[in-house]
Write a structure and sequence with these properties.
3 copies of one chain form a homotrimer. Chain A is mainly beta. The first copy, chain A, has one domain: Porin (Beta Barrel), CATH 2.40.160.10. Chain A has a 16-stranded antiparallel beta barrel. In chain A, a hairpin with a 7-residue loop joins strand 14 and strand 15. Chain A is globular, with a radius of gyration of 21 Å. Chains in contact: A-B, A-C, B-C. Chains A and B meet through helix 1, strand 3, strand 4, strand 5 and strand 6 of A and helix 1, strand 1, strand 2 and strand 17 of B. Chains A, B, C: Keywords: Cell outer membrane, Ion transport, Membrane, Porin, Signal, Transmembrane, Transmembrane beta strand, Transport. Chains A, B, C: It is found in: Cell outer membrane. Chains A, B, C: One of its GO terms (molecular function) is porin activity.
């Protein structure tokens, strides 16, 4: 009878799982025009988050799935996005079939960002070494609302994903729409993804403001890593074309005469390693942005870090990175959560998942 | 010992239950002046939500109850209200006695809305067939803050409810106050409610802005349904009087020369059915608004839908509705969550409760 | 096998505990210039809240800890702070060692507020008797973001705490920083704390707005209570110096010719008792603010309350307080959640923790 009571209770709770990550530490940034700054920062290695998710078995290999995930700042308790969107990280509901794959509706990750954070970057798009600022992965290149995503089942290590996000503008079905797809291979030591993201940047007419026809943003990324056991090697190559294909650096943060603009035509390369050392892992990467526009505003970044695990769920870390801007480029060393303000940054912190 | 560990854990969790609903699909609206639009929409059948609730047994048939419930949009992750109120759907605490009934304080549903969604409308105030736009149930007619609600116990199928919400305006205790009550009967196949809602719309003086004396909004609704097993029949009759007694349609959405205004004196009728068919239910309704003002801006709506259950907690659905406006009325086909932008709408989607 | 299923489920849940408090009641305030007002108020005795916290045992007496805590209003469902910060009450992550103490990073309580609410005030900084308005405990004197807190282990009843919060202003490491410390003794019937809080109020240059050099706010508090069993006696003495060292009362709420300003040099005293009576406790306090500036705007407050427990987690309460302002002082009777609008207030309500 007592066990029966628990069964009811456990059953009541089992429809939803609460999960999350709290990551905080100290960040020292220098080389910015405003001077050095030391901050308590949330989400250095990965954005702090709180989420609710569930899976319901519907029988015959079919299940209903959902997730609602907030990005939060553990340094000041605020929601971690400029629009105070509660579940800014993820919000979706859908069906998943073992044989046919899954179809989900809502606010979801792009294939572009997943490939970058899960395969391309030894720093997982976090810490001082994050490649987010040099590879064009910010804003809608990371997540997109009103998206329909189909993910195929995995067959012999291969799988594929398709994303289509509606622009929802009356009278113009393509304005603001976003398309993405990914071809993935993961088997044994090899993990590889080829992904594409295409975002229409037209804005429809609103009242007396006329419609604005703009370029599309087109991003392609090849991400590969291979686990040689003594070292895991990482390689990534990307092309970024069109408006806003790079994150806009903090305006004039370096006091350049000409404000740096994000490149509208660039090629990005990353070479990185993760090396087991002692109880943890040494991470290192070299990232390079080759601006193909007439401005030729290239940049390169070196990064080094160490992750020290205290348990499967908790770790401490240190990381350092330095960026070199050319011809007035204004890229900064950031982390998973902030674009940063300087060309050098040091991190030390703790992350705990639950 | 292992079981002991669960008992502690289950006990720690048992004070609060997490629950919710994620509902999303595609909505195609047409007939609006801006042209057709196709959207990923959240809350088509019922607003997507995440809630926390608890009941504590205090002995002698008395218990303490609370609920905190957010309305959310699973299409973009945002809170689903214009003021970003975290627990905009419900927030209350109170006491519940088996013999004496319950008394709760906080942000709560009106009897008017509950009767409409729970008894009057076969679409449950959701999907394209929602009667929300034609019956006057929006804003404070749905939920009201600073409310005290008494709900009687059920005796021979009869029960009653009283709501009084304070206006909280210094020096004028009636400005902004709201009153509601309901007489309910539910026994066997018959479910009937007679409800009344009266909202004072005065605003007190603020600084140099003088107090404004306005009409009251008065809404009366008789809602009845009867389950004949082969078909469940629905009937509703309402009178709406006073300012804002109808939801304001999207201004000029249809490009009428005179912007349509919500009727300040109207009678509304709904006739509907829910018919078990195959694994699911066919829903249909005819809703009519009779504007008694000199504008005589009447409207009628036809709606048809099918709910296909995948489990007790998950279903898929399709629905279609068409509205006919007369004399420049500007009512739109909406759903549970949106007022809509056109006079025709088609829905297809999935809803999952947890 | 069924038990195994629960074990997985219980384990999945055990990483995070949901907790909270819902407190709501009626507040009648009078003596304000705008006239009397009766309100449904949330957080009269203690701010209503919803929190998520966890502890992970890392072995060797070390654990990882985190908390994310929202302040909410159960009367209207809104977040209970002007900036809509989701986890405005607490947000931190850190490590705790049985031998070495704990170190936490994030948004945290000041030692000043904890001593006042946990030791100094028989009303626990809540109800009409709250000493928050007369003792200088509002805003950053209560909680501070970007804070590092070290708390020592308890040795023979003694413990200590240190807080350092970064101002995070580029080029000026002291602008906006906050320092706090506390010396605590708790053994047998005696509970005593000596705490200090020092907040730098400089603001750095932003664009063309030059840096502003301002005083520091310095607050010292000695808080003592002693449990004589038949009565628990409370005593507190505080000095408040510098800008904004007192909460700013509602501007001109009493219509004084000269708007009352918070004292920049004051001494505060509280004498209080908590007396077991019947099933509950009678609370009473006398609070006095001695303004040492030339304005000499002193104030005194009398308060009386009764807490009636329905269970360990649920209670009902009544409280009344009256304040006397001198020389144009504008202090109001508040409660834990509101500063109040009058010089008299009556509370009746219910609080339920989960």
């Amino acid at each position: 009878m007592v066990i029966g009571a628990f069964s009811a209770s456990a059953q009541a709770q089992s429809n939803v799982t609460i999960y999350g990550l709290v990551d905080a530490g100290l960040v020292k940034e220098s080389g910015g025009v405003a001077g050095s700054v030391t901050k308590v920062t949330s989400g250095i290695g990965g954005q702090s988050r709180l989420g609710f998710r569930g899976v319901e078995d519907l029988g015959n290999g079919l299940s209903a799935v959902f997730a609602l995930e907030s990005g939060i700042k553990v340094d000041d308790g605020a929601l971690d996005n400029s629009t105070s969107t509660l579940f800014n990280r993820q919000a979706y509901v859908g069906l998943k079939s073992k044989e046919l794959g899954s179809f989900t509706l809502g606010r979801q990750y792009t294939m572009l960002y997943n490939a970058m954070s899960q395969v391309a970057d030894p720093f997982g798009a976090g810490y001082a070494g994050s490649i987010k600022n040099l590879f064009a992965t910010a804003g809608a290149n990371t997540r997109v609302s009103n998206a329909m995503v189909y993910a195929s089942p995995v067959v012999n290590g291969f799988s594929g994903e398709l994303l289509y996000a509606l622009g929802e503008q009356a009278g113009d079905s393509t304005a603001g729409r976003q398309i993405g797809f990914g071809l993935n291979y993961a088997q044994g030591p090899l993990n590889a993804r080829l992904v594409y993201n295409n975002r229409n940047q037209d804005t429809a007419a609103v009242g007396t403001t006329p419609a604005k026809k703009q370029d599309e943003a087109k991003n392609t990324l090849l991400a590969v890593n291979y686990d040689f056991t003594v070292v895991k090697a990482f390689f990534a190559y990307a092309t970024d074309k069109g408006l806003n294909s790079s994150p806009i650096p903090v305006a004039n943060a370096f006091g350049y005469k000409t404000a740096p603009k994000p490149s509208t035509d660039a090629r990005d390369i990353l070479i990185g390693v993760s090396v087991p050392a002692g109880p943890g892992n040494v991470l290192a990467s070299y990232t390079s942005k080759d601006d193909k526009t007439v401005n030729n505003q290239d940049a390169t970044q070196w990064a080094l870090g160490y992750i020290y695990p205290l348990s499967k769920r908790t770790s401490t870390y240190v990381a350092y990175a330095k960026i070199k801007n050319k011809n007035g480029a204004g890229y900064t060393v950031g982390n998973n959560n902030e674009a940063g303000t300087g060309d050098k940054a040091f991190n030390v912190g703790i992350r705990h998942s639950f």
